[in-house]
Every structure is written in C-alpha cells, then in structure tokens.
C-alpha cells in the first residue's frame, strides 16, 4: 500500500473531500496541517518540484493577505522570493496538495489524486 502525504486544511471542503478519497486508497496517510506548521522554504521548493509547478502557479490570489501584501501574479519576483512569501503566509498555498512517492498533485478537483495510485 502506498504512503500518501496531504497538506491539509480542515476548513476547506476540497481538502476534506480529498482526505476521504485518500482514506479509501491507503491507510498510510501523513497529514500536514500546513497552516499550523508551515513548510519551510526548502520543503516548499521540493514540493513544487514534485508538482512540476512554479510558486506563482500555486498562490491563492483570492486570500485577503494576498491583497494586503500588495501582491499580483505578474510581479517581477524571483522563485526564491515567492517561496519566502508562501512560507511566511501559508494561507496563500493552494490546497490540498497530495504527495505519493516522488509525485505530487493539487486535489482540485479531489478525484485528481486518484492518478497517484
């Protein structure tokens, strides 16, 4: 049975739906409550490499903090700068993210995670 790691927000319906799907696929689930324990810049970098995405592609632009920080997706920021912003403001990280082995996927829609099994 494959081990899965989910970056989970219990307040998010998509995250809860994804968790239910994971529970139907494996009993080896590591849950990372990323709002309580934000991933480091290094951990985010590895996660994004597994997703094959750039930081700006997983930024939640609808969050109030995005606007409060004066951010826009087309800002001239480096990958490293976006990673720091995400690490310092984990609410900006798209959710849920599921990792199985060396692959990761954003569970939107939740059924997308089935491709990891």
Give the helix/strand layout.
Elements: E1 4-7, H1 13-25, E2 29-32, H2 41-51, H3 64-68, H4 79-88, E3 97-100, E4 103-106
Parallel strand pairs: 1-2
Antiparallel strand pairs: 1-3, 3-4
Helix pairs in contact: 2-4
Describe this structure in words.
The chain is of the alpha+beta class and 117 residues long. It folds into two domains: 1-34 and 95-117, no CATH class; 40-92, no CATH class. Helix content is 33%, strand content 14%. It contains four helices and four strands, in the order βαβαααββ. The protein has helices at residues 13-25, 41-51, 64-68, 79-88; strands at 4-7, 29-32, 97-100, 103-106. The protein has a four-stranded mixed sheet, sandwiched between helices. Strand 1, helix 1 and strand 2 form a beta-alpha-beta unit. The longest helix has 13 residues, at 13-25. The model has no long low-confidence stretch (mean pLDDT 96).
Number of strands: 4
- Number of domain units: 2
The main β sheet shows up as: 4 strands, mixed
Please indicate the percent range of residues in DSSP E strands (runs of 2 or more): 5-15%
> N-to-C SSE series?
EHEHHHEE
Keywords:
117 residues, alpha+beta, 2 domains, 4 helices, 4 strands, 33% helix, globular
Short structural summary:
The protein is of the alpha+beta class and 117 residues long.
């Amino acid at each position: 049975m494959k081990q899965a790691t989910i970056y989970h927000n219990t307040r998010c319906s998509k995250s809860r739906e994804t968790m239910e799907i994971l529970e139907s696929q494996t009993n080896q689930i590591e849950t990372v409550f990323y709002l309580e324990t934000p991933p480091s810049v290094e951990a985010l970098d590895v996660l994004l490499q597994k997703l094959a995405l750039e930081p700006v592609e997983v930024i939640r632009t609808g969050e109030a903090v995005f606007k409060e920080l004066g951010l826009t997706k087309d800002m001239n920021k480096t990958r490293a700068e976006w990673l720091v912003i995400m690490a310092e403001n984990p609410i900006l990280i798209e959710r849920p993210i599921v990792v199985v082995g060396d692959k990761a996927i954003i569970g939107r829609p939740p059924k997308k995670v089935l491709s990891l099994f």
